[in-house]
Write a structure and sequence with these properties.
The chain is of the alpha/beta class. About 45% of the residues lie in helices and about 15% in strands. Strand 3 and strand 4 form a beta hairpin.
Length: about 400
């Protein structure tokens, strides 16, 4: 029985594959020279033996080498995470939403690490104009994950080379569920081609001077998800960020923290959780429920960039609850701070407008005439938006952010 198992394991061209490809691990083997010496990294060296003894020794040597390599990789992953002081509060990647000025605003209000927006690896690798328009950072912008999408290992590596000295992780986007990702064959749609994902991770992990991380979504099957994250870990991934929804689920559906907990318990590298983080109570609950090493927020930060500093919008304060008080910060002041950062770190006006809408949305609902004037303005300037904030404040309606009262 053992004989037949080993023969199957050490077939050079064979792969163990489940019906969905989740166990598609090619078993690399070794060959012997006529004198029993190792050639070109094939069978591990052993004394001449016969039968089960020889096969068992071969299996043991290969397994031990692979296991030792995996342990060293895990040790490096944790050493790097500790070097970064194990950040727990993280700005998630948002397409044209987590650019440098917004990252810096979130960092001022408690964020301990941040992702760039998703960057297209081919455009980034081939176009200096694309790079200059879509990526910027500064010395205070650390720890930083730079996220790329793509499906070609060589192009992805070339893009990563451009930023490895400016970041703490190069991240592969394996979670984008949008139609553009389907048509471009990247993001969550690479889940249909796990050998390709393995090649992407391995290519970066074996060539970069910084660790590789992956942001993923769940498979409908928990077993498939666990096999997936183990494949990523075995391929050299040093950190996995898990959006706790499947490719077909949207934010109105609750993120699956139980699945994230199972992932955390199944692998030996840092794990981050993404989903259902609206205020700091959610942060604490997620950390406790899942055991993860950090949490990420995206849409909630667009509404309230001060979330990680303990501020919450009135949406998450129950009427009559005297445990909260006005925190002395409102969305208008956050917009002003954001604009000043944009003056320091220029970005596209389309990005600025989107953030202004995100933070002033409730004011615009109450004062649609101000919103309409904003929409009609053809020559936007910082002065115009500063004056618009003053105009809204003069109307007398306030949307403060709240903090928990301190016990006296």
């Amino acid at each position: 029985m053992f004989n037949s198992i080993i023969k199957r394991l050490f077939s050079c061209q064979s792969a163990m594959t489940s019906t969905n490809g989740l166990s598609a691990f090619l078993i690399q083997t070794h060959s012997l020279s006529p004198k029993g010496r190792m050639t070109s990294g094939l069978y591990p060296p052993f004394h001449h033996r016969s039968g089960d003894a020889l096969l068992k020794a071969t299996f043991s040597a290969t397994y031990t080498s692979s296991y030792s390599t995996k342990i060293r990789s895990e040790d490096r992953a944790w050493a790097h995470w500790r070097k970064l002081k194990q950040p727990k509060l993280i700005v998630a990647p948002m397409y044209e939403g987590s650019e440098l000025p917004f990252r810096m605003l979130c960092r001022k209000y408690g964020a301990e690490a941040a992702y760039t927006p998703m960057l297209h690896s081919r455009s980034f690798a081939e176009g200096m104009k694309y790079r200059s328009k879509n990526f910027s950072t500064c010395k205070e912008d650390r720890p930083l994950f730079v996220q790329f999408c793509g499906n070609d290992p060589d192009i992805l590596l070339e893009a990563a080379y451009q930023v490895e000295s400016d970041c703490d992780y190069v991240d592969i986007n394996l979670g984008c569920p949008q139609r553009i990702a389907r048509s471009g064959n990247y993001g969550a749609f690479l889940m249909d081609d796990l050998p390709l994902i393995k090649s992407l991770v391995t290519k970066l992990a074996t060539n970069l001077t910084v660790p590789v991380s992956c942001k993923i979504r769940l498979f409908p099957s928990l077993d498939d998800t666990l096999n997936y994250v183990k494949l990523l870990e075995d391929s050299g991934c040093s950190l996995i960020a898990v959006h706790g929804r499947t490719r077909d689920e949207r934010t109105k559906q609750r993120a699956n923290w139980d699945a994230i907990k199972s992932i955390k318990n199944s692998i030996n590298i840092p794990v981050l959780a993404n989903g259902n983080i609206r205020h700091m109570d959610d942060v604490a609950n997620c950390l406790e429920a899942t055991g993860v090493d950090g949490v990420m927020s995206a849409e909630s930060l667009l509404d309230n960039p001060a979330l990680f500093a303990g501020f919450r919008s009135g949406d998450w304060v129950v009427d009559g609850d005297d445990g909260f008080e006005n925190g002395g910060v409102d969305r208008g002041s956050l917009v002003v701070e954001y604009l000043k950062l944009c003056e320091k770190y220029p970005v596209k006006w389309g990005i600025i407008v989107a953030h202004v809408y995100g933070m002033l949305g409730k004011w615009f609902e109450v004062h649609p005439d101000v919103r309409d004037d904003f929409n009609k303005e053809k020559e936007l300037s910082f002065e115009y938006i500063y004056s618009m904030v003053d105009r809204l404040r003069a109307r007398g309606v306030q949307f403060p952010l709240y903090v928990k009262k301190t016990r006296g």
